[in-house]
Amino acid sequence: MFLDRIVQQTNKDLVERKQVVPIEVLMQHAMEQPQPRDLLEAFVPRDRVHLIAEVKRASPSKGLLAPDLDPVATALTYEANGASVISVLTEPHFFLGAPEFLTAIKRAVTIPVLRKDFIFDDYQVYEARAWGADAILLICAILDDTQLRRLLTLAHDLRMRALVEVHSAEEAARAVAAGAHIIGVNSRDLTTFKMNPYLIREIRQQLPADRIIVAESGIHSQADVRRLARYDVQAMLVGESLVVSQDIPGQIRMLLNGANKTTQVKICGLSDAESLDTAVEAGADMLGFIFYPPSHRYIEPDKVKALLTASRSYADAETQVQPDLVGVFVNKEADFINEVIESAGLHYVQLHGNESPELCRQIKRPVIKALSVTSKEDLERLNDYATVVWRLLIDTPTPEWGGTGRTGDWQLAQQATRLHKILLAGGLTSENVVSALQAVRPWGIDVSSGVETNKRKDPEKIRTFLGQIRQYEAQQEKGQYA
Fold it and tell me: Which of the four pLDDT bands, split at 50, 70 and 90, describes residue 207?
């Protein structure tokens, strides 16, 4: 197995280094280093996704990535284009890293530098500080609880921070229990090197809100980073897609803009495979299923998994980023909703009735709470839900539950977006969605009737709607919109 081979080789190298430089000498060098740069401060503000850019020449799974890579020049390019932290591989055999890279990069840049290696011994922590590292990587998969706590404590004693890497829910619980402040969720299995890009979605809820969460591995496209924005991470660690890029500044710009400036789009009321395929292929971020029988868009909960299986695009996880699944409920009991969550495989729940904040707390998935806003008093009512739900959705008020096809008060909605992450709904079409984005600047858009013809989803309208949004974002990035 890759991981066992790497750890064995690292241990062999470590024995040799201890003979060359006694730990007492190394400790003295570590103590003589200037004050480390604080990794936690690199992730301010916390409501955006920051970039940890990695200097990486090779990997065990992909082999040689960048044979001509200049570590210092690459790190300077990263910093100049918006990276918040530089990660430096120091493992020499499988990743072709070197401690000299770290020391030279630390002297050249002004942002924190992370030593990325397979650390399991106190000696390696002192090494990292002696070489100039501001932080270290600790991998739960190669450490028991005692080692993890000891190395975390030692790093903090040396005024360094630690990025604690996890690969499962069990490891995430261990990291939290050990007191890790910065937790990295690595989507790559270090035993098989296979990817699970949805691992962070699966374990995000169990990670405390006061921790810094870092997404690691498999981050290449705008769809990848939009997905990370849904999972409320504070940073992404990216190496491969940067070092192999012919345009590193452009790749960084795409990653940061994709995570922080693009709009999440939910296509709601799906009930057939054709429209579901169209939504996935057009780049929808969330797929909505309505479990409210009076609606003409109603789908029985036990039909959802069969619908997903029938979809050629959603089922093709190898080539297509899968959108997240949202179930829409109106005034149902928490037990019923939680049962449907499991049977339909939902990732989020949208509540469109008179549900109380207390009921929202009982739901076993993150909640989107739909509310109508017609006055400043309604804006204040958003605060009743903001601390207990994942996102707020502003829709047009209606005497009956469901879409109205009418737009709401965008000025009030814009005021709401200054305080909360808002999804905007109500009367949105391909003709007015860009105006809505300019006027409101919402975190996300929710559309149903606006992509229908005769109360049925219209594939061409779905494609046009999403196309208008992505085109607007591309033009905005180029400065063609204010």
Answer: very high
* Chain centroid offset of residue 264 CA: 13
Q: Active-site residues: which are they?
A: 268, 395
Of 102-116, 264-278, 373-387, the least confident:
373-387
Ramachandran assignment for 347, one of left (phi > 0), alpha (psi -120 to 50 degrees), beta (any other)? alpha
CATH 3.20.20.70, the chain: domain bounds: 2-260, 264-477
- Residue identified by tokens 């992370």 is 114
Q: What percent of the chain has pLDDT over 90?
A: 83
* pTM, two decimal places: 0.93
Cα separation, 180 vs 166, in Å, equals 11
> Is the pLDDT assigned to residue 310 strictly greater than 70?
yes
On the question of pLDDT at 401 being above 60, the answer is: no
Count other C-beta atoms under 10 Å from residue 378's C-beta: 16
CATH T-level topology, domain 2-260 = TIM Barrel (3.20.20)
Among 339, 287, 290, residue whose Cα is nearest residue 315: 287
For residue 113, the cross-strand partners are 86
| Two tokens, residue 60 | 């065990």
- Contact 157/184 with Cβ under 8 angstroms? no
Quick check: 5 pLDDT over 50?
A: yes
Pairwise CA distance, residues 17 & 8, whole Å: 14
Provide the pLDDT for residue 482.
Answer: 44
HEC string of the chain equals CHHHHHHHHHHHHHHHHHHHCCHHHHHHHHHCCCCCCCCHHHHCCCCCCEEEEEECCEECCCEECCCCCCHHHHHHHHHHCCCCEEEEECCCCCCCCCHHHHHHHHHHCCCCEEEECCCCCHHHHHHHHHHCCCEEEEEHHHCCHHHHHHHHHHHHHCCCEEEEEECCHHHHHHHHHHCCCEEEEECECCCCCCECCCHHHHHHHHCCCCCEEEEECCCCCHHHHHHHHHCCCCEEEECHHHHCCCCHHHHHHHHHHHHHCCCEEEECCCCCHHHHHHHHHHCCCEEEEECCCCCCCECCHHHHHHHHHHCCCCCCCCCCCCCEEEEEECCCCHHHHHHHHHHHCCCEEEECCCCCHHHHHCCCCCEEEEEECCCHHHHHHHHHHHCCCCEEEEECCCCCCCCCCCCCCHHHHHHHHCCCCEEECCCCCCCCHHHHHHHHCCCEEEECHHHEECCEECHHHHHHHHHHHHHHHHHHHCCCCC
Q: Are 79 and 111 in contact (CB under 8 A)?
A: yes
Which CATH fold would you assign to the domain 264-477?
A: TIM Barrel (3.20.20)
Name the β-bridge partners of 139: 165
